[in-house]
Q: What sequence folds into this?
């Protein structure tokens, strides 16, 4: 299960200046929302959510943030990388009329989810928000799927200014959804949780991000208060029943040493 | 009768553990809620991460590498430092009547004493001296547990200061382990914890042509270390009178019973969380009860130990 696989990068797609999708030709068999631990065995190892997964290949979409991702960005097709996984909980594939809300570089995992939901026959509305037009990713991919797709930026360069939460608010008022999936920055997701308090009957699932080391439920770095569940095993996808109990959500997370860092 | 958990409750150094299972240092014990989650799932005693004077981020990844018989890890003593770490212990202990072992790591007697004084002021129930981390030798040289003189010095110094029982966590990667165990006992240790991870070991990725672990080497755990742990516990049990926490490779109830028969009073379960999931603790508890029923043992202390060497 923890078997590590080392293989060449098949293709790298530049989504924008700081976001790239790395493709590998390998059957991963991951479910939407799951992640892999990717490493060059030199600079580090980090978790990345699966943004695409078909029978012959899979992709992870990576934002350049620190020294490790910087090293990844120097890789070219044919260069070797090593991964283990896929790990973690996955999005349920449920709902007939479904709203998906993404923010920034956390949106791509919703693309894989969308494809699986469409296969299951669901009607989808996808909201993709980012700070600027350049930071909106996967627009073309979403546009090519048969779903209702809306984009928005903080700056308003696409005609309206605001966040994906603003659009979600309007959509929730005007439509009847039976499932909501969210993947975005934590403060955006907290705003979604607050918004969804107005819909007590509506089920939802969020994709969480925490500092992970072992990714197999042993080291305890990614436990979340007050439940103590591990986001690498019981997460990274959590459903409403768990999310409403989280006190740490949107308040703080713990760094590599386990010290609380407040948002 | 079968599900009566009081049958597997254990008295340990004046505290009552609901089950004989111990969460060893380094596993899950970083946050108060992680401690709570482990206890809720059937663990009887919780050990904190090994806490150090200053916070440590640990080694860069990969810090875990699997192989056929178990895994290697080189976490590198990641922990939030003694202050924050004890805050997590206190937060847990404030609400839950569950014994907590505070593990501490230092490289000098002075630092061990400073850490112990801080533990004195906490809600921790026991202090465990990590004398045996195999993953920081680049920084600190050989583990202290390699020398019975150093082990005795540190244990006796800490005993002078500590207001709570002192456990010495020792390394299997030494010669003359039983002498080190008896030295720890003679220096006043209230209990031993055996064993820390084995090795260290190494794995190589032949495609990238590099060591898999970032730190090149890492301590070995999982099913493959069980025979070594059993031998170490049994030899120590044969020579010392103080209780022993037996840990190393325990993955199921029968392994746990083996550890008890080797002479352990409590049984650590760590790496088994990976294959067994969080349900592993309750599974082992139930399997111990099943074993007790099979042989007609009323309480866990009725399970016989092997005859001493």
A:
């Amino acid at each position: 299960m923890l078997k590590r696989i080392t293989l060449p990068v098949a293709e790298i797609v530049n989504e924008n200046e700081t976001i790239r999708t790395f493709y590998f030709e390998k059957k991963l068999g991951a479910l939407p929302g799951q992640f892999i631990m990717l490493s060059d065995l030199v600079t580090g190892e980090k978790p990345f959510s699966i943004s695409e997964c078909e029978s012959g290949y899979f992709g992870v979409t990576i934002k350049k943030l620190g020294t490790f991702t910087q090293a990844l960005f120097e890789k070219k097709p044919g260069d070797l990388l090593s991964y283990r996984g896929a790990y973690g909980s996955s999005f349920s594939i449920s709902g007939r009329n479904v709203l998906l809300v993404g923010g920034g570089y956390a949106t791509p995992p919703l693309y894989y989810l969308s494809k699986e939901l469409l296969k299951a026959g669901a009607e989808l509305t996808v909201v993709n928000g980012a700070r600027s037009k350049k930071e909106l990713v996967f627009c073309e991919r979403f546009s090519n799927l048969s779903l209702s797709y809306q984009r928005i930026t903080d700056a308003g360069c696409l005609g309206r200014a605001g966040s994906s939460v603003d659009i979600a608010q309007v959509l929730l008022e005007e439509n009847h959804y039976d499932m909501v999936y969210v993947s975005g920055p934590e403060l955006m997701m907290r705003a979604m949780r607050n918004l969804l308090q107005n819909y007590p009957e509506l089920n939802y699932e969020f994709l969480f991000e925490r500092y992970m080391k072992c990714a197999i439920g042993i080291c305890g770095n990614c436990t979340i208060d007050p439940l103590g569940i591990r986001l690498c095993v019981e997460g990274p996808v959590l459903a409403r029943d768990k999310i409403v109990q989280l006190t740490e959500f949107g308040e703080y997370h713990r760094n590599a040493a386990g010290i609380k860092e407040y948002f | 009768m079968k599900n009566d958990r009081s049958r597997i409750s254990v008295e340990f150094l004046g505290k009552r553990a609901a089950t004989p299972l111990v969460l060893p240092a380094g596993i899950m014990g970083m946050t108060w809620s992680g401690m709570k989650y482990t206890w809720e799932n059937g663990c009887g005693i919780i050990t904190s991460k090994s806490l150090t004077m200053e916070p440590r981020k640990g080694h860069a990844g990969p810090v875990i590498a699997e192989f056929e018989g178990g895994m290697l890890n080189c976490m590198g003593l990641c922990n939030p430092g003694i202050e924050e770490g004890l805050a997590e212990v206190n937060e847990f202990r404030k609400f839950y009547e569950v014994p907590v072992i505070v593990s501490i790591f230092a490289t000098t007697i002075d630092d061990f004493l400073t850490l112990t004084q801080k533990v004195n002021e906490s809600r921790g129930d026991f202090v465990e001296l990590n004398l045996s981390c195999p993953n920081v030798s680049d920084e600190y040289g050989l583990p202290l547990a390699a020398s019975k003189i150093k082990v005795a010095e540190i244990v006796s110094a800490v005993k002078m200061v500590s207001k709570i029982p002192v456990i010495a966590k020792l390394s299997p990667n030494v010669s003359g382990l039983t002498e080190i165990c008896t030295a720890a006992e003679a220096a006043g240790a209230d209990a031993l914890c055996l064993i820390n991870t084995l090795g260290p070991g190494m794995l190589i990725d032949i495609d990238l042509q590099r060591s898999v672990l970032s730190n090149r080497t890492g301590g070995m755990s999982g099913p493959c270390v069980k025979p070594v742990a059993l031998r170490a516990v049994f030899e120590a049990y044969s020579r010392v009178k103080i209780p022993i926490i037996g840990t190393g490779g325990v993955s199921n109830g029968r392994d746990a019973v083996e550890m008890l028969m080797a002479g352990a009073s409590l049984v650590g379960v760590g790496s088994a969380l990976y294959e067994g999931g969080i349900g592993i603790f309750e599974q082992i508890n139930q399997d111990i009860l099943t074993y007790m029923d099979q042989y007609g043992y009323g309480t866990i202390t009725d399970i016989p130990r092997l005859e001493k060497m």
